[in-house]
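Thread amino acids onto this structure.
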């Protein structure tokens, strides 16, 4: 059992409280998912539970976390620079119990995660591994450590579909409590038996956490049903109240009129009016109390709003890409041969494959070719945002590099549509969450009128609440999309063609989206 008592977390930068007086008990068998919009403090909460000192540089933490002697295992969303520079062998050797592990156990872990068991002793630096391989290495590390609580920050990021299926089974069958953040709705739906929903209400000034011992789908459905009932009840009560108030104002106006016209020579009439005025005042007080007790409209965070303009359309017969590559290599290692990909019109293509197959390397080459074209307006969202973002700039500076007043105003309006606060607009990009950085790419694509989107794991940092909006936007997008993704809902709902990258090239999945539907 893990117990959290009265935990509060306040960010020093803008004096914003993201977690307030939060208490929770996690028992064996609990699989609790943390959901909420980007920037609401989900990763910060995990870090505070793991080690409050880890966020001492930018946040103040109060409260108690009782582990009762249990070790906490933490899978980070991003490895620190020191870990990235380390050799894989040295990184693994630092794990408690690594050298005591029977060779057969290490092989079993490697096989489950689709890793070469020799990787655990490799001199290759961790930072040169693919994004999915780094996540798998962290999962392997947790399996070796055998903690009493798993804290998983985006464990599904970048891992291939087969490993995703293994991860689902692992979380679902775990007797050890699991507290995790994930963008992958399918993973959440298939594993979580408890939901922690972090919201910032009252115009993002007040944190609220709802704890529900329900599956994710049950929680979303009950929440939507409850909000609909509350909204309808609030509107009905307001309509009744407005009708009563209209009648009350008529009576009030009549009494005031009679009072103004009563003759001083009619004392009996004056006494009647005084009684009527007292009755009107009593009625007014009664209506004031009734108004205070009325059902209020729900105070919830609105969903993000994104929409491409009518100019982002690709003609059906237009050749967007005719790409051919004899050999795909990375750091001198041959990954694939005879790659060919043709995209026309408003096709929405997804490339899948095992981790380390070279998907990101291939997408970089495609982006390099398309970004120089003058007949299309291509835009690229890399897996590593730092490749394209200057982290020292603010979001407004990134979206409105001209600095002109009209451009700045437009940028701020668009940032507001995806729930940036005024303070967040003035922060440097380095201080933003992964999801907030991802939003910047999408807003830039919209502002630039892009008609070809090159997206490497576009949903990886968006919350399960934002992802349905993102999928809808990309599905309705009138241009072409060339993507790499392991998100099964994204593949099934957005992509019109799915290719698997293998050592012999790209293989078209003739049954579109079969990779998603089979899992």
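Threaded sequence (519 positions):
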């Amino acid at each position: 059992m893990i117990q959290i008592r009265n935990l509060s977390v306040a960010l020093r930068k803008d004096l914003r409280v993201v977690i307030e007086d939060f208490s929770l008990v996690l028992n064996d068998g609990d699989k609790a998912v943390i959901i909420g919009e980007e920037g609401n403090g989900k990763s910060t909460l995990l870090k505070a539970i793991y080690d409050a000192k880890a966020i001492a540089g930018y946040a103040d933490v109060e409260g108690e976390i009782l582990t009762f002697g249990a070790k906490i295992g933490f899978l980070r969303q991003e490895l620190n620079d020191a870990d990235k520079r380390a050799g894989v062998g040295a990184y693994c050797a630092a794990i408690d119990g690594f050298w005591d592990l029977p060779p057969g156990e290490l092989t079993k872990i490697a096989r489950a995660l689709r890793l070469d068991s020799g990787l655990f002793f490799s001199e290759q630096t961790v930072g040169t591994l693919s994004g999915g391989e780094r996540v798998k290495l962290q999962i392997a590390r947790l399996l070796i450590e055998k903690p009493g609580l798993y804290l998983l920050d985006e464990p599904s990021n970048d891992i291939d579909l087969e490993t995703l299926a293994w991860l689902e089974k692992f979380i679902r069958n775990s007797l050890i409590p699991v507290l995790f953040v994930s963008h992958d709705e399918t993973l959440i739906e298939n594993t979580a038996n408890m939901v922690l929903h972090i919201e910032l209400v009252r115009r993002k000034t007040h944190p609220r956490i709802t704890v529900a011992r329900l599956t994710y789908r049950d929680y979303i459905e009950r929440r939507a049903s409850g909000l609909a009932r509350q909204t309808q009840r609030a509107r009905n009560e307001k309509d009744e109240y407005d009708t009563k108030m209209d009648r009350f104002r008529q009576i009030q106006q009549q009494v005031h009129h009679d009072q103004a016209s009563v003759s001083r020579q009619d004392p009996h009439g004056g006494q009647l009016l005084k009684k009527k005025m007292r009755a009107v005042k009593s009625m007014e007080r009664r209506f004031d109390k009734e108004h205070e007790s009325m059902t209020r409209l729900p105070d919830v965070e609105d969903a993000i709003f994104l929409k491409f303009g009518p100019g982002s359309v690709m003609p059906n017969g237009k050749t967007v890409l005719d790409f051919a590559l004899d050999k795909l290599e990375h750091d001198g290692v041959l990954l694939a041969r005879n790659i060919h990909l043709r995209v026309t019109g408003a096709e929405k293509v997804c490339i899948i494959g095992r981790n380390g197959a070279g998907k990101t390397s291939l997408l970089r080459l495609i982006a390099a070719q398309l970004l120089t074209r003058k007949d299309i307006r291509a835009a690229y969202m890399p897996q590593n945002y730092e490749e394209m973002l200057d982290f020292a700039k603010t979001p407004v500076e990134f979206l409105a590099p001209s600095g002109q007043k009209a451009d700045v105003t437009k940028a701020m309006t668009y940032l507001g549509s995806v729930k940036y606060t005024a303070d967040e607009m003035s922060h440097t990009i380095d201080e933003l969450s992964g999801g907030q950085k991802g939003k910047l790419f999408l807003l830039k694509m919209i502002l630039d009128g892009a008609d070809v989107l090159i997206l490497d794991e576009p949903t990886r940092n968006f919350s399960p609440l934002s992802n349905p909006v993102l999928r809808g936007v990309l599905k309705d997008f009138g241009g072409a999309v060339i993507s790499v993704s392991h998100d099964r809902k994204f593949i099934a709902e957005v992509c019109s063609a799915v290719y698997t990258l293998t050592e012999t090239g790209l293989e078209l999945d003739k049954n579109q989206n079969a990779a998603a539907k089979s899992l």
